[in-house]
C-alpha cells in the first residue's frame, strides 16, 4: 500500500518551498531592523506548558492538541487506558502555537534577568492543531512569530504592530486590501468585572444563543464574541464594550498605542469585539485580515500583549507582547492578488558534456566554478547536446559551458549565452573569470 500524508498536512517543495524560504528571509530582513534575533524552540513541549499558558478553556487546548508519547510510555497509556501514571514531564504535545514555548524557554534560560533589558526574538516553524480541515485551515501549518519580553511601554506595542505591517508590505501584499483591527482586553484590574458583565449578558440572552455560548458564559465568556454562529454574533454586538470598562491605566495605555500608530501612519480600525482565541492576552490585541478573496479564513496574523504569561509559565512577572502570522494564509492572499512570492528558480550555469571522453573535464569545470561560488548544474545521464541545452533552459541557466572533443584538444571551453545564443571559446583556466564577467 502506498502511504499518504496525514490529512491537513503538506509536502513543501519546489516553488512552494521557495516561497516559504523567501517569507522567512523577508521576516529576517524586516525584523532585524528592529533588532530581533532568531530562536528555535522544540516542536513538542510538556502539555502543561500549553495548559498553563494558553488555558484549559480554549478550543486549542481542549480539542485541538496533538499528543505525543514515546514508545514505552505509549504502551503504558494503552494498557492503563489513561496517562494518569505518567509523570508530567512525559506528557507531551506538539505545539499548537509558538508563544507558550517561547516563554517557557525564556523562563528556563533566564532571557530577562530581574531588572534586565528586554529581549526581542522571532521564530518560524510548523504548528499543529487538530482542526477541521478546510482551505486555509490545516493541521500542520507554518507560522512566523515575533515576541518581546521585559517592557510594557505602549511604544513597544505600536512598534511591534508597525513591524508586522512592514513585513506584509515587504512581502508584496496590497496594503489597501489589508485591515488591521485593534482592541484592548484590559488587565487583571479591570477585566474580571467586564467578564462578569459579559457572563450576565450571555445568561440573560441564553435562549437566543447556541449551547456552546451558554457553557462559555461560565468558562470563557469573552469567546462568545468569536462564536461561529451568526445569531450569537448578532446578539453579542449589543453586549457591553470593553473600551467603556477599562481601568485608567489600560485606557491610557490603549490611547498611547493608537497615538503612536497614528504617528507612524499605520491605518487601523478599532474593533471592540476583538478578543482573540487564547487566554493569555492582556491590554493590546490586534488581528490582520485581508478584505477580499479569502472567504472565512481571512485572518493572516494576529497577536497581543501578554503581561501575565511569564508567571503562568513559572517565571517572574515580566510583561510581553508578540504576534504570529500564518504562511499558508498569506500565500492564499498573495496568490489572490497575483503576487508570486516564490519567483523563478535561481539562475545557474549549466556545464554541458558533448562527448563521453569529456566527462572528467566537465567534472573539473563544475568543481572550479562551484568553488568560486557559482551555482552550477550538469548532465549525469549522457544525454544528447540538444537535450542538455533543453535541460539548461529548464534549470533557468544564463550560461552554458560546453566541453567537447575540440575544446578538450584546445585546452578550452565554449561559453554560450542562453538568451542571445552568442558563444565564445575561452581557455579552460580562464573559465571562472569568464563566467564571473558574464553573470
Ligand atoms: P493564532 O495563533 O490562532 O492567533 O493564529 C495566528 C495566525 O496563524 C492566523 O492569523 C492564521 O494566519 C494562522 N493559522 C492559525 N491556525 C491555522 C490553521 N489551522 N491553518 C493555517 N493557518 C492557521
UniProtKB/TrEMBL annotation:
Binding partners and assembly: Homodimer.
Top-level lineage group: Bacteria
EC number(s) per entry: 6.1.1.21
GO cellular component, one term: cytoplasm
InterPro entries on file: aa-tRNA-synth_II, aa-tRNA-synth_II/BPL/LPL, Anticodon-bd, Anticodon-bd_dom_sf, His-tRNA-ligase, HisRS-like_core, HisRS/HisZ, HisRS_anticodon
Subcellular location: Cytoplasm
Residues covered by the Aminoacyl-transfer RNA synthetases class-II family profile domain: 1-346
Keyword field: Aminoacyl-tRNA synthetase, ATP-binding, Cytoplasm, Ligase, Nucleotide-binding, Protein biosynthesis
EC main group: ligase
PANTHER family: HISTIDINE--TRNA LIGASE, MITOCHONDRIAL-RELATED (PTHR43707:SF1), HISTIDYL-TRNA SYNTHETASE (PTHR43707)
GO biological-process terms attached to the record: histidyl-tRNA aminoacylation
Family in the record: Belongs to the class-II aminoacyl-tRNA synthetase family.
Molecular-function GO term, any one: ATP binding
Protein name from the UniProt record: Histidine--tRNA ligase
Enzymatic reactions: tRNA(His) + L-histidine + ATP = L-histidyl-tRNA(His) + AMP + diphosphate + H(+)
Pfam family, one: HGTP_anticodon
Record-listed L-histidine binding positions: 97-99, 129, 143, 147, 276, 280-281
Amino acid at each position: 500500500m502506498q502511504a499518504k500524508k496525514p490529512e491537513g498536512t503538506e509536502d513543501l517543495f519546489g516553488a512552494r518551498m521557495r516561497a516559504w524560504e523567501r517569507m522567512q528571509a523577508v521576516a529576517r530582513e524586516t525584523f532585524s531592523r528592529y533588532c530581533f534575533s532568531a530562536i528555535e524552540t522544540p516542536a513538542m513541549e510538556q502539555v502543561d506548558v500549553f495548559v498553563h499558558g494558553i488555558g484549559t478553556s480554549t478550543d486549542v487546548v481542549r480539542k485541538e492538541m496533538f499528543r505525543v508519547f514515546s514508545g514505552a510510555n505509549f504502551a503504558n497509556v494503552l494498557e492503563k487506558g489513561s496517562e494518569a501514571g505518567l509523570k508530567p514531564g512525559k506528557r507531551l504535545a506538539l505545539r499548537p502555537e509558538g508563544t507558550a514555548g517561547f516563554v517557557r524557554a525564556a523562563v528556563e534560560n533566564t532571557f530577562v534577568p530581574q531588572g534586565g533589558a528586554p529581549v526581542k526574538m522571532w521564530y518560524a516553524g510548523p504548528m499543529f492543531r487538530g482542526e477541521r480541515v478546510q482551505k486555509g485551515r490545516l493541521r500542520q501549518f507554518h507560522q512566523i512569530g515575533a515576541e518581546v519580553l521585559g517592557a510594557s511601554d505602549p511604544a513597544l506595542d505600536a512598534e511591534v504592530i508597525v513591524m508586522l505591517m512592514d513585513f506584509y508590505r515587504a512581502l508584496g501584499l496590497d496594503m489597501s486590501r489589508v485591515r488591521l483591527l485593534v482592541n484592548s482586553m484590559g488587565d487583571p484590574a479591570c477585566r474580571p468585572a467586564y467578564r462578569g458583565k459579559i457572563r450576565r449578558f450571555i445568561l440573560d440572552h441564553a435562549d437566543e444563543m447556541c449551547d456552546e455560548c451558554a457553557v462559555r458564559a461560565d468558562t470563557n465568556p469573552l469567546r462568545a464574541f468569536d462564536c461561529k454562529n451568526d445569531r450569537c454574533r448578532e446578539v453579542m454586538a449589543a453586549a457591553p464594550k470593553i473600551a467603556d470598562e477599562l481601568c485608567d491605566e489600560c485606557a491610557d495605555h490603549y490611547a498611547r498605542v493608537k497615538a503612536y500608530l497614528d504617528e507612524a501612519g499605520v491605518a487601523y480600525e478599532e474593533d471592540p469585539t476583538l478578543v482573540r482565541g487564547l487566554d493569555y492576552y492582556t491590554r493590546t490585541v490586534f488581528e490582520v485580515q485581508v478584505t477580499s478573496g479569502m472567504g472565512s479564513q481571512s485572518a493572516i496574523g494576529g497577536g497581543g500583549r501578554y503581561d501575565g504569561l511569564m508567571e503562568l509559565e513559572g517565571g517572574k512577572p515580566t510583561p510581553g507582547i508578540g504576534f504570529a502570522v500564518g504562511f499558508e494564509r498569506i500565500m492564499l492572499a498573495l496568490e489572490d492578488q497575483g503576487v508570486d512570492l516564490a519567483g523563478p528558480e535561481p539562475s545557474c550555469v549549466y556545464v554541458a558534456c558533448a562527448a563521453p571522453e569529456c566527462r572528467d573535464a566537465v567534472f573539473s569545470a563544475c568543481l572550479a566554478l562551484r568553488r568560486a561560488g557559482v551555482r552550477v548544474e550538469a548532465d549525469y545521464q549522457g544525454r544528447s547536446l540538444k537535450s542538455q541545452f533543453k535541460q539548461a533552459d529548464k534549470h533557468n541557466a544564463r550560461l552554458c559551458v560546453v566541453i567537447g572533443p575540440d575544446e578538450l584538444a584546445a585546452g578550452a571551453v565554449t561559453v554560450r549565452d542562453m538568451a542571445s545564443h552568442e558563444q565564445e571559446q575561452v581557455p579552460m583556466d580562464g573559465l571562472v573569470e569568464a563566467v564571473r564577467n558574464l553573470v
